[in-house]
Amino acid sequence: MHQFLARENEKPEAMLHLQEGWACRYRLLPDGRRQITGLYLPGDYCDPQWALGGLPSQPIVAITNVRALQLPCRASHAGLDGHHGFGQALSDVIERQANWLVTLGRKTAMERVAHLLVELFERMRKAGLAYGQQCAMPLTQIEIADMTGLTPVHVNRTLQSMRAKGLVELQSKWLRIPELQALREVGALTPQEAAA
């Protein structure tokens, strides 16, 4: 846990295809504040942009223990286009980043947290790692704050409000969403995002 998978401006040895575990990409401001700019879950490529060449502009660190396949970084040399839907994975990352930008720029605290939780659940379900209405959720409130541009105190209050409304249950690093459509509505997800 908390091991660097890539360091800023250092050529990565390989692109990682996560089999187990969670990781994140982030940027630190000069005063130490952190913004998480990408989240990698099981089934994700970490980081698919590396196949396009260049160096990582932000470090990537494991949030949990991680197990991953190592793949060559250059798609042209590795034939990654056909490797487990690599092209679709790259497209998904681009769309996810656009959604995060809108969320950070225009949504309320409740909408931001709801959007994040729906996204996590849907991604875990797509990876075959959701069980009924629940999935693993090892993120701390500080990590949620660093993803949503909120303070940890604001995240805590928002989660308490969501629990009181019966929108989510968080216990022992597990997330349960009793009514997914209700949480999608609270998150102000577009029909395209809700169908993802």
What's the short version?
The chain is of the alpha+beta class and 196 residues long.
Salient structural properties:
11 strands, 196 residues, 4-stranded antiparallel beta sheet, 22% strand, alpha+beta, 7 helices
SSE layout and pairing:
Layout: E1 4-6, E2 15-20, E3 23-28, E4 34-40, E5 45-46, E6 60-62, E7 67-71, H1 75-78, H2 86-106, H3 109-126, E8 130-131, E9 134-136, H4 141-148, H5 152-164, E10 169-171, E11 174-176, H6 180-186, H7 191-195
What does the model show?
It is a single chain. Strand 10 (169-171) and strand 11 (174-176) form a beta hairpin. Helices cover 39% and strands 22% of the residues. Helix 3 crosses helix 5 (152-164), helix 3 packs across helix 6 (180-186) and helix 4 crosses helix 5. The model has no long low-confidence stretch (mean pLDDT 89). It is of the alpha+beta class and 196 residues long. It is globular, with a radius of gyration of 17 Å. It contains seven helices and eleven strands. A four-stranded antiparallel beta sheet has the order 1-6-3-4. A four-stranded antiparallel beta sheet has the order 8-9-11-10.
